[in-house]
Amino acid sequence: MSGAITDFGHHDAHYEPKGLGRWLTTTNHKDIGILYMLFGLTMFLLGGLFAELIRAQLIHPSNHFLTPEVYNQVITLHGLVMVFGALMPVTAGFANYLIPLMIGAPDMALPRLNNWGFWLLPPAAIVLVLPFILKLFGIGNGPVDTGWTMYAPLSVQGGPGVDFAIFAIFLLGASSLMASINIVVTIFNLRAPGMTMMKLPLFVWSWLMTSFLLIAVFPALIAGSAMLLADRHFGTHFFSAAGGGDPVLWEHLFWFFGHPEVYILLFPTAGILSHILPTFARKPIYGYKAQVYSYWAIAALSVVVWAHHMFTSGMPVAGQLYFMYSTMLISVPLAILFFCWLATIWKGSLTFETPMLFALGYIVLFGIGGLTGLILADAVADQQYHNSFFLVAHFHYALFGGPIMGVIAGIYYWLPKITGRMYSEPLGKLHFWLTMIGFNITFMSQFFLGVAGMPRRIPDYALQFASLNLVSSLGAFLLGAAQLILVYNVIRAAAGFGKPATSQVWEGAQGLEFTLPSPPPHHTFDEQPVVA
Amino acid sequence: MVKPKQVILGSAALMLISGAAQAHNPFEFQTPVTPIARETLYVHDLFLTIAGILFTIGFGFLLFAVIHYRRGRGHTPATFTAPRTPLQWALSALPILTLMFIDYIVMGIPAYHAVLSLADTRNDAALVIKVTGSQWRWHYDYPDQGISFVSNLSTSEAQRDSGAPTDSNYLLEVDKPLVLPVGEKVRVLLTSTDVIHAWWIPSFGIKQDAVPGFLRETWVKIDKPGVYRGQCAELCGVGHAYMPIVVEAKSQDDFKKWVADAQASAAQAAAVTTLSKEDLLKHGQQTYTTYCALCHQPTGLGLPGAFPPIAAGKPFAAPPTMTDLLAQRGFFKNGLIAEGPVDQHIQIVLKGIPGTPMPNFDGQLNDADIAAVITFERNSFGNHTGDVVQPSTVKAARGK
């Protein structure tokens, strides 16, 4: 008797749809995680294509490869696509795939919300990029061309592309808020017995902080975008001084979102690093509590320093001093993270598989990005760096050198777990070295360009900047080409080539996800694990 | 200028060499010539040294670990996860305390001084100038001297189209530079007529946003005579790259002479009343090339969807925000920008079209300029109205 009842329950829990329908209707956290990651990878390639167009335009002065309008559109789409289309979805994909596995939960807490959250993304991407495609066929006057910061009043007077971008932001915001709420609920409610908060894997902690930040700051951007839409079409004057509004208000709203956004991109990959380094050092993570408290400190500080992006906008002295000193304070918790990472590999037994290489590359490159950020905090010196190529180099070291290197490390680290197949190690190493060389050639030269006085976002430039721009462009082509190796490695493993991966995948890997087979079954944790 | 052949080998090493070949330390800013720029350079140099040391220490630890603790050397991994002894606690706290010391003492104190001195725009200011940004040129006013003029990019189109420009001041040259005296504190007020621009001259260490509807301020005190060049530093639309700033710093005597000359020629320009049609067309073409061609194109064809054509019989599709006002003024019928009434034409050039990139030119162009450019537009690009607009007509239209 009882056997029949068990059978019934068993059958229901293991219903596993096949084919296209599985991917369109899935509420399974692993499937949705994979969808997020594939979406992010696609957008990463698109954003990379835009980057290559930028560098092709800047390869020599007086180049007419792109017209100034198209150039402005390309730089804007590059920024928006990379931040909202590539990095956020990929890290959200990691969250969806890994968090339930890491905390011993059968799925995310709100699976249907999860499905909805993902399916808002493709329309958002289409809305954002479609005007660019249409313009190629001579329809309309192209996408948003205001820079990813969409400063008013330029964005008030822009073409319909700005409206498309505003709607994309609404969709992306709704998607991010849904994902964040889901993650918070999952972490609070679905932990396995014994998995106390201070036993959570650091990746899970990092995403908890990311979710809090998203819920705190994304509404500011959505509200600002709604005001912008009203200014453009409904006769309001939020951002028009002639009607009693304030153009700088947009900057405050944008950066109240935009500065924490940096840490929204950074946190999940800082978490990833704290899994990879102990694995390949065969040594437990150093300073777990210190890292958790640093996450809290960074998250709290990140929402009170936004106006350091606006030192040239004409702030009163008190404002300049406050934002300068509070920004410098962030260097402390970040330094603690670096300290813990270095102490984790100290006296370990290190091996250098591809994920470890990318993790070490992260420490080096993000270190440069962080250090240069410290001087950008200086309100007066910032006048020299702000909106110059120095700034461009700084935030690429911080955002490519950090989050993107971290995401790539994470992909190589968990790809065998997800696909059940090992990637090609020699190709992975080649990918790492080409990325490091290409990246440094591209962006180190931009530090010098900025110091020499080249403004960012210009399609043509003075002759004194010519040679360094050529170097930067050549580096960018190498960097872009190198990423195709990643695509090949992912497709190869997903298609079932390569050595089969064991459950533990890596000799030193720890964590609940490595107690499961590779790939994990469609439904995990039939029996809830108990954490000692 | 490095030849393309030399730079094909794009390596990091070559990058450093080519940087050095510019006869200037590639880590340093353009030679500073104001007190603010010198303070900034000091902080920059200090910081680069500190950052270099911190990076070397951090990277040194990393490199040591990577080399020394390889598994290949048979190391047994340790198991520590936190400092254990008082000494270790002290060694862990040391980097943090050092960082705080660097943040708030080594860098914090000079930064505090610099912020206060940058904000001190009024004390001892001998001269006040007003800088107005508009898409895409700078307008300079000397309120006490009664001088005002517009400064436009003067790099020729031939250079811009050449694919390999040769002029060393390519994109950094203007028709009328801002002229300032050396050795005197100049208070600079900034505003904008349309979007946010930023006035940046690297060797002055100054970058200040020009915000529409608000006055911002900064100051310079230039050490030595010379020509200093910069650019707009806030994305302000399609002409963002074509908004250079050139400042000619003169000795105080030369500056006084320049002021007298500028006042005299301003009086002369204001006195002009009637011009021949030929003169108007000639001057109008110049004005059009400088002020209108970036949007409406040298051909008068405009850019589809964004900037209307001036040429006759060319259809134009744009959102109602852009076309409604034109239609009210009889300039837009069935998608064609018709040859509307001349009074309205003057008003559009004077006041602009709100909500579109068409700026108001009443502050930037004098009566003769506007009269000439309208005469030119109404008799070129296939338009044959035969209208001749005189400066006096424009002068009368300004009040309306």
TrEMBL record, chain A:
Regions crossing the membrane: 32-54, 74-99, 120-144, 164-190, 202-230, 262-281, 293-311, 323-345, 357-377, 397-415, 427-449, 469-491
Catalytic activity: 4 Fe(II)-[cytochrome c] + O2 + 8 H(+)(in) = 4 Fe(III)-[cytochrome c] + 2 H2O + 4 H(+)(out)
Major localization listed first in the record, in broad terms: membrane
Top-level lineage group: Bacteria
Keyword Protease set for record: no
MF-aspect GO terms: cytochrome-c oxidase activity; heme binding; metal ion binding
Designated name of the protein: Cytochrome c oxidase subunit 1
